[in-house]
Amino acid sequence: MPVLPQRTPSRRALLTAAVTVPAPLLAAAPAVAATTGTGGVEVVHPWTALALASGVTASADTPGARVIRIAGTDFLQLRGGVTCAFAGDAVLGAVPASLAVPKISRGVCPRNNKAGVNACRVEISTAGRITVSGGTTTSAITWITLDGFSVVLV
Q: CA distances (Å), 51 to each of 38, 123, 137, 150, in order?
């Protein structure tokens, strides 16, 4: 039988792996996990609390950010939830200064369901500022869950 050459993981495969690994499972890992070959997960920057803007309140699961490395690719992840009153684009807060964001990073996060709209765009600037888009006067955002935010840092 012929031996097929080993393929390196594609970015799509890495993204799929990062999204399918539940954040609580990764959070239970030690602060710095050992990597084995190209398939390991390493915590580059541990969970650190977000600095929330005025008028934004943390839910029971304190909002935080971290960076993990899967197969040599860094991912920025957010967790936790907030309550707020966003009737337009607004600032949610900021990631820790120790966490460098090399490019604008965007993701979609669940929010309160109003008239069939149940997601909002969350964007992190290179300065670390977190903004939320999608709220309107007729469909204000009253809560956001950040657990699904995971983006590649390139």
A: 33, 15, 25, 18
> For residue 76, how far is the Cα from the chain centroid?
5
Tokens of 148: 């699904």
Q: Residue 117's closest CA among 100, 135, 144? A: 135
Q: Are 128 and 99 in contact (CB under 8 A)?
A: yes
Query: What pTM was estimated for this model as a whole?
Result: 0.74
Range 93-116 average pLDDT: 93
Banded pLDDT at 19 (limits 50, 70, 90): low
The residue behind tokens 């300065």 is: 127
Strands of 40-139, DSSP E: 41-49, 51-52, 57-58, 64-70, 73-79, 81-86, 90-94, 105-114, 117-124, 129-133
Q: What is the pLDDT of residues 64-95, one digit of tens each?
A: 999 999 999 999 999 999 999 999 999 999 99
Q: What does the alpha-carbon distance between residue 2 and residue 98 come to, in Å, rounded to a whole number?
A: 49
